[in-house]
Amino acid sequence: MLTIGQMARICNISTKTLHHYEAIGLFMPAEIGQENQYRYYQPGQIDLLRKIVFFRSLGLGLEVIRELRESGAMADAAKINAILLEHVETLREEISTRQQLLNQVEARMQQFTIKGEIKMNFTIKTVEQFSVVGMEHNSQTSSESIPQMWQRFILRENEIQAKINPSFSYGICYGMEGEAIVYVAGFQSNHEPLPDGMVRVIIPTQKYAVFTHKGPLFEPGHDITDTFAEIHQTWPQYQLTRAAGVDFEFYDERFLGVDNELSEVDIYIPIE
Fold first, then answer.
1. Do 167 and 255 have their domain in common?
2. Do residue 255 and residue 181 come from a single domain?
3. What global pTM score does this model have?
4. Tens of pLDDT, residues 137-186
5. Which end of the chain has fewer CB atoms surrounding its CB within 10 Å, N or C?
6. What's phi and psi for 97, nearest 5 deg?
């Protein structure tokens, strides 16, 4: 027979934990001394306790473990393997998520200068007037988000005729001087008539500061809205004067998908 202290040492837990397991009916001693109330365990109980401790280390709740024990699953190798395989998949997802977070932190660290400012590279371009045909989102009247509108637009983009370059798409943002923000996802085209439910936007000739967002578009902590925030929060260091006009996102062959770590999207901010 093993004492409670010996059992705790063998399974690397505390005697307090063993008392708790007993109190909730999860793991009972083989015998309790009538005179001293000491707990004693059979060597054959070691395997069960080690499984309980292992499942706890995986994050399983005590009630779940009790159900496994009472159903006989703790002694069923096939069922245990099924549980472990499920946990392996969970761990892989967690590792992937943590790796993405690590990549974001490392990328953010590289953006900071010694003074603690974020430095973003940009170029200056003058863009001649062009026309975009696409689907419109109005912040005051639309019930969906911009990403949801993009999903609807992708299903209908082939309806746009005579695209100037089918590899280039645009996210046009205007009307920000008022209360509503209007955003149009579309392609450059001069074709008439317009597809049902779509609009045309004329972007006038304008000088732009062009910044590049790199990575997924909607990944928490490092999506395209974070890039917009960085641009505007650090605007004074660029020594540029913003002009009234149309902002737009430019998607070309460097855009590899909304979740792709290697995707790049150019952001055009009008300047004087």
1. yes
2. yes
3. 0.59
4. 988 888 888 889 999 999 999 999 999 999 999 999 987 656 678 899 99
5. C
6. -65, -45
